[in-house]
DNA sequence: AGCATTTCTTAACTTAAGTGAACGAGTGGA
DNA sequence: TCCACTCGTTCACTTAAGTTAAGAAATGCT
């Protein structure tokens, strides 16, 4: 498992043995099997999750049904709202694939901020950009039909359609799996 | 008009004549009539809008139809995504009521940041909180039906239902005005 | 390989939103 | 004051999503 992490990291940076030791003693990188739950509803956490490899999803359980609201794949990350509100989480986070996830902590952030003030600027810019992106996504969702949302997803995130189960995709699009099947059949029908 | 601004401000802080002059020379506060457009589609801007009194809305025009995606009332604000992406705006911003709006500029932010480093921390926290709120709202929208969204709106933003025209509310809920009428009739029917 | 489980699709039926049109109430302007 | 216009509601009809059920296909486990 450590080899997988090191192999992955070596694609990006060259590490001295000391640095490798330092990284593992930091206990920041984690390898999870597909299906592993990182956060459960009702649980309190101060952790943020950043995906290096694989894919994780956030979902609510409403009336016994899973409602997937977001996917985070390579180089994407989440800080659950409950981290900021200091309340139990409203949703679950779990891995849709075997994944390497960087897990960081509010306290860790504070330590880094104290050492490197420029890190704060980075975080502000990062979070402002995320906010803008999220706003655009939200607007796109509101102003389009399920079918348009699906067609849009094909354009913007073709990988998701391949790697994620249909029923999770469906709830991500705000519809039932049966409706997604039908909708896809409709699109293919129209093409031919 | 300056009296209205001063009257409003005096509820919160006491100002010396010099400060009053300083405020107006800053040219930060603006009074707009209902219906005034602050930002047009295709326009470039570096401005953020913060509502002190009244209410503004953001909307797209898609196939000649207005699609309202957000309302900002007292003590709420927006930075349009186009400010960050440096591209022409995709949407309009206009006043749904006579409003007092604080308009600030990316450059102004930089100046303030340089003078007061703690201001950066404030901005980061503010934008992280906004991000969390937005995420919660987005999730709530995705996981609920138009009717649930309307019922939710009654709980969370009862003021909007009173002060905003139905057809804008409808598009904010992601439906047509006729559907909103029907939906409301359905709810009343069920109560009795 | 064989069995159980999950996942995806199809179908028939129900429910709710979209569409186009008409009507009355309210609003603003000449 | 009167006219035109906007706004909200209602109705009839269309379209698409929800629901329930069944079966085929893929997956996982032993």
Uncertain residue ranges of chain A: none
CATH class identity of the largest domain in chain A: Mainly Beta
Shape, principal axes of CA atoms of chain A: globular
Tally of DSSP helical segments of chain A: 9
CATH topology of the largest domain in chain A: Jelly Rolls
Number of strands of chain A: 8
The CATH superfamily name of the largest domain in chain A is: Jelly Rolls
Tally the structural domains of chain A. Answer: 2
Q: What's the assembly state of these chains?
A: homodimer
Largest sheet: number of strands, sense, barrel closure of chain A: 4 strands, antiparallel
Task: Give the DSSP E fraction of chain A (strand runs of 2 or more residues).
Answer: 15-25%
Strand order of the largest sheet of chain A: 1-8-3-6
**How do the helices and strands follow one another from N- to C-terminus of chain A?**
HHEEEEEEHEEHHHHHH
Structure described in brief:
Two copies of one chain form a homodimer. With about 190 residues, the first copy, chain A, is α+β, with helices and mostly antiparallel strands. The first copy, chain A, has helices at about 1-10, 15-25, 80-85, 105-115, 120-140, 145-155, 160-165, 165-170, 175-190, and strands spanning about 30, 35-40, 45-55, 55-60, 65-70, 75-80, 90-95, 100-105.
């Amino acid at each position: 498992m450590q080899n997988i992490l090191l192999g992955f990291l070596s694609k990006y940076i060259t590490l001295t043995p000391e640095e490798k030791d330092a990284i593992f003693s930091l206990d920041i990188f984690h390898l999870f099997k597909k299906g592993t739950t990182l956060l459960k509803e009702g649980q309190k956490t101060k952790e943020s999750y950043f995906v290096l490899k694989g894919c994780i999803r956030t979902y609510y359980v409403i009336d016994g049904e899973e409602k997937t609201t977001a996917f985070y794949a390579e180089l994407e990350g989440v800080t659950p709202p409950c981290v900021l509100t200091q309340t139990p989480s409203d949703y679950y986070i779990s891995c849709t694939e075997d994944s390497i996830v960087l897990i960081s902590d509010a306290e860790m952030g504070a330590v880094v901020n104290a050492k490197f003030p420029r890190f704060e600027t980075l975080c502000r810019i990062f979070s402002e950009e995320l906010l803008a992106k999220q706003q655009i996504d939200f607007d796109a969702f509101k102003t389009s039909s399920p079918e348009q949302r699906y067609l849009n997803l094909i354009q913007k995130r073709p990988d998701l359609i391949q790697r994620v189960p249909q029923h999770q995709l469906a709830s991500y699009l705000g519809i039932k799996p049966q409706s997604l099947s039908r909708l896809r059949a409709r699109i293919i029908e129209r093409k031919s």
